[in-house]
Design goal:
Number of strands: 31
CATH topology of the largest domain: TIM Barrel
Shape: globular
CATH architecture of the largest domain: Alpha-Beta Barrel
Structural class: alpha/beta
Helix content: 10-25%
Number of helices: 15
CATH superfamily of the largest domain: Glycosidases
Bound molecules: beta-D-galactopyranose
Strand content: 15-25%
Distance between the termini: 37 Å
Largest sheet: 7 strands, parallel
Length: 662
């Protein structure tokens, strides 16, 4: 796999690569032999890129797309948006990168709202109708009777092109990324982004955001309830109520609700909780940051606050120096809200024509706001790792330990977000809030525990949602499963960090040679060994496609899969599953490390591991990552253990037993 860079014209000054972390890969100048013939033209509309694309190729990516999986034939306009309700490209995290089943992907280095036409036919490319077709003899022509049928993307028999239009720009850098599989290509893109993020061990545990109106006593009571109910939880999030002013923000503790912030955070920490603070970047006049930020902010206010220009290093320093004072009392993460656009939600944000002191305009800043905000907060956190939240990301964001979320709530769309996020170097949490029924709540919690961040966002709920629905025991069971998986998850993220391999990804990433993978939009791989096929309320059965896989030593061997909950063995292919659990399958030959579930992770946590061996594991190894679990530059050791369960001495892991599932 390789990355090639090619420049056309004179690229704009404000582009994602200028602000991105250093790539962790080499880049070759110029296109390789065999690359498509790329045509680039400039006009007063901007830059237009056109090149042939196989009409049968799968096209995936473009960031957090909640409404569509296969992008072939579609038009995508990449605009940062808080309410992405249609399959238009609008997204909390639009990313100008796509990947194909033709052995390449492409990253377009732009912060503009670029338009991608993923398979258009240029005039003259279609084959002429035959004489028979012209006469229209025989069968009657088809007439659609629904708009869905009418406008469904059609298979093209003609030669198709990808056309990309970048407004205003008179030049652009393209990164052409080749690889044998989508997984290779996406991993390379993530290394171009500086490698995937490495969360702290505790960041992968349970995460609960308290009601926005809670005071410090109510937060402490909530913490005690988690421990007394024995529901695992590592992180408590405080919503707007911790601040004296929100919309816009003061970043000052509210002296009525939180008169003792340092003591509260300390008590929570003694109970094993990390604390995450909600905020957005719009800075209120009462904020201690307001005066100093004046010269470094845009020319429009949002909710009466300043919009800091985080593309200027000094702005980031001013902001993060102040935020550091919050970290100094023990805050270990942030939720960075409202840094996406408001085209469909009341228009609260700054206009696209806004001007910022660096020279960046509002449109470009909308594409950069989330990533620059993450950079700012990471400086405040210093050498301490986090797994935080953000509502906007864009290009080259893999290294930021911030998970995306949304105010939208359709469970199916949230699952689509999980499946799609892995194409674009972003992480997504299908967060759980209220539910219509116990069944709805359980189905949503099932999905979230098998995602990058196990988040319950109760910002408008006075109590844990499972109490009213009477399903506390089931929710406890699910969060305990999450804790059992922590060592496995940690290895998944280590791979993301060191090789760029996305921890959560669509099946087509690994199995593009199998036709079923092409449009498989409701299943995903959770690490290398687990396949997850979530279900939503009202569903009690579904088809699950289990890939054949390949086995290097025996290409005729077809992979078997095991039900994670029952141990039942399944042949590959389409299987019909009836279950109230979430369908999760483990690939044969996996040595899955399962930890005895803990209520939370501490710095001295030691895992008692049951090594579950699925099928013949005589040649398999399980990798376990040991480090201090919290520092950015912590040395990391990779321990390997085989079917005998014997492992070198270490601090973090002890193999208690090997369990065989045959
Ligand atoms: C929203 C955010 C919610 C919650 C709320 C608090 O914008 O998406 O999760 O934090 O603000 O006001």
């Amino acid at each position: 796999m390789s990355i090639y860079k090619v420049r056309y014209g004179t690229p704009e000054e404000f582009v994602p690569t200028r602000f991105a972390p250093k790539p962790k890969c080499s880049i070759t100048e110029g296109l390789p032999q065999g690359a498509p013939n790329i045509d680039c033209a400039f006009s007063r509309r901007g830059t237009k890129i056109t090149f042939p694309i196989d009409p049968k190729a799968g096209v995936y990516g473009f960031g957090l797309q909640l409404k569509g999986f296969q992008q072939r034939g579609k038009k995508k306009t990449l605009r940062a948006n808080a309410d992405p309700l249609s399959d238009s490209g609008d997204s909390h995290a639009p990313v100008p990168f796509f990947v194909t089943t033709s052995g390449y992907g492409m990253f377009v280095d732009t912060a503009r709202y670029a338009e991608f036409y993923c398979g258009k036919v240029k005039r003259g490319s279609s084959a002429k109708p035959s004489a028979e077709q012209a006469q229209n003899t025989g069968t009657a022509s088809e007439v659609a009777l629904s708009t869905d049928a009418l406008y469904a993307v059609r298979e093209s028999t003609a030669d198709t092109v990808m056309t990309i239009e970048i407004p205003f720009a008179q030049g652009v850098d393209l990164y052409y990324i080749t690889g044998d599989t989508i997984l290779d290509i996406v991993s390379s893109y993530n290394m171009l982004s500086g490698g995937g993020c490495m969360p702290p061990l505790w960041g992968l545990g349970g995460f609960y955001r308290c009601c926005g109106q809670f005071d410090e006593n109510q937060v402490l009571e909530m913490a005690e309830r988690f421990r007394s109910l024995d529901i695992p939880c590592d992180i408590l999030g405080l919503e707007p109520g911790w601040q004296s002013q929100t919309y816009s923000c003061s970043y000052l503790w509210d002296s009525t609700r939180f008169p003792h912030p340092a003591e509260t955070v300390k008590r929570l920490s003694e109970m094993g909780f990390h604390v995450n603070l909600w905020e957005h970047a719009f800075t209120h006049p009462t904020s201690p940051l307001y005066e100093s930020l004046q010269p470094y902010s845009g020319d429009y206010e949002v909710w009466g606050g300043l919009v800091p220009d985080f593309t200027i290093p000094h702005t980031r320093k001013l902001f993060s120096d102040y935020q550091k004072t919050l970290c100094d009392i023990g805050i270990s993460g942030f939720k960075l809200d409202e840094c996406d656009g408001s085209d469909f939600t009341g228009g609260w944000t700054f206009p696209n024509c806004a001007q910022f002191p660096s020279g960046i305009d509002g449109e470009q800043y909308h594409s950069m706001f989330g990533t620059m905000y993450c950079q700012t907060q990471l400086s405040a956190l210093g050498n301490v790792r986090t797994l935080s939240e953000v509502r906007n990301l864009g290009a080259l964001a893999a290294s930021y330990p911030f998970v995306l979320y949304s105010d939208l709530y359709a469970h199916k769309d949230f699952i689509m977000g999980v499946v799609n996020s892995g194409f674009s170097g972003i992480l997504w949490s299908p967060e759980v809030r209220h539910a219509d029924s116990a069944e709805d709540l359980i189905r949503r919690v099932q999905t979230v525990v098998f995602s990058a961040q196990a988040l319950v966002n109760a910002w408008y709920l006075p109590d844990m949602p499972w109490i009213a629905h009477g399903c506390t025991d089931e929710i406890r069971r699910l969060f305990r499963i999450r804790m059992q998986l922590l060592p496995y998850l940690y290895t998944m993220f280590y791979d993301y960090h060191t090789t760029g391999k996305p921890p959560v990804r669509a099946l087509v990433c690994d199995y593009q040679n199998e036709a079923e993978a092409f449009n498989c939009a409701d299943e995903y791989l959770f690490g290398d060994s687990m396949l997850v096929a979530p279900m939503t309320a009202g569903e009690h059965e579904r088809d699950v496609w289990l890939p054949k896989g390949t086995n290097e030593s025996d290409s005729n061997h077809e992979t078997a899969w095991y039900n994670f909950f029952t141990g039942e063995k399944y042949e590959c292919g389409m299987q019909h599953i009836k279950t109230e659990d979430i369908p999760v399958f483990v690939k044969e030959g996996t040595l899955l490390p399962l930890a005895a579930p803990l209520s939370h992770i501490a710095s001295d946590t030691q895992f008692e591991i049951t090594l579950r061996a699925y099928g013949d594991c005589s040649a398999s190894v399980c990798r376990l990552i040991e480090d201090d679990g919290v520092s950015v530059d912590a040395p990391m050791k990779v321990h390997t253990v085989g079917i005998d369960g014997v492992m070198e001495d270490n601090f973090r892991y002890r193999i208690a037993e090997v369990e065989h599932i045959l």
